[in-house]
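Anyone able to model this chain together with nicotinamide-adenine-dinucleotide?
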Amino acid sequence: MGRNKITILGAGNVGAATAHIAATRNLGDIVLLDIVEGLAQGKALDIAQAGPVQSYDCKIVGTRDWKQTADSNIVIVTSGLPRRPGMSRDDLLAKNVQIVKDVSEKIAAYSPNSIVIVVCNPLDAMAYAAAKVTGFDKNKVMGMAGELDSARFSYFLASELGASVKDIKCILMGGHGDDMVPLTRFTSISGKPVTELLDKAKLDELIERTRKGGIEIVNLLGSSAYYAPAAGTVKMAEAILKDNKTILSCCAYCDSEYNVGGYFVGVPVVLGKNGAEKVLQLDLNEHEQAQFEKSLAHVKQLAAKVDKLL
Ligand SMILES: NC(=O)c1ccc[n+]([C@@H]2O[C@H](COP(=O)([O-])OP(=O)(O)OC[C@H]3O[C@@H](n4cnc5c(N)ncnc54)[C@H](O)[C@@H]3O)[C@@H](O)[C@H]2O)c1
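re: yes, here you go
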């Protein structure tokens, strides 16, 4: 059996951090591709030179040449503009949909059997665009956002409770936007629901900080986050490559599930060698379902814009 091949499109902040974390996890050989001359090559060489220190020996290639990406098992799409202060993720749609269209056509041509993880924003709309353009089976295209948003919520909860982040299990649904839905009823610390550990006012405060977690970093850095997004992306790639059937919050295609009706949106998903293998159906109460539907309505509006632009 050959080694896994992971292509990462975009060698900017998220792409390079993803390549580095994937290398430290020894997930397979990595191709980093960018349109900017020298960028992917330079970052790949730098990451490869950390290998002797960090004990990874995967091959890491930086390139502008799509031929080098051929027959990848996984393609990660970070190519796209990031937010700047004052921007919403939705402001990126018109430009990023053209980038996603361009790279999706090439993914379909060079790696027709790959599984695609979209990272660029607005996330749910870009996953929808990638699925439409590649024409891949819906289980083979997905987006990374829920792992990041859950990680942010877990971090805030652990900080508040003086607990270890390792003991927190968090589930979050909905679109990757200000109306995402962290599910406190399904979020627990060592099995104890957080609703029994923190009062509603404190939980609402932490949920609000989670929803605004992206812009908090954009305002500090002048651009968007990358270490935690990269970590979330690699976790998804690892679950797929190792076929370990982990349940993660991912942006996945849903039809009858949660009455979504054929869109990509954040839901708990079983990840394995066939990609998004199964959407887990949680028993949402009326309030949770209403919050999810509000978030989904926004996702559908963005998908309609994608349909017009493609
Ligand atoms: N899903 C999430 O949770 C999440 C989190 C953080 C960032 N993001 C998104 O990820 C994307 C990347 O963010 P970043 O901070 O790495 O931006 P960045 O500007 O640092 O990097 C993007 C890279 O993509 C490259 N690129 C553009 N068009 C390309 C093409 N056609 N082919 C190959 N490469 C191309 C650019 O040259 C650039 O180097 C943004 O859209 C950002 O909003 C998503």
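The chain has a mean pLDDT of 96.
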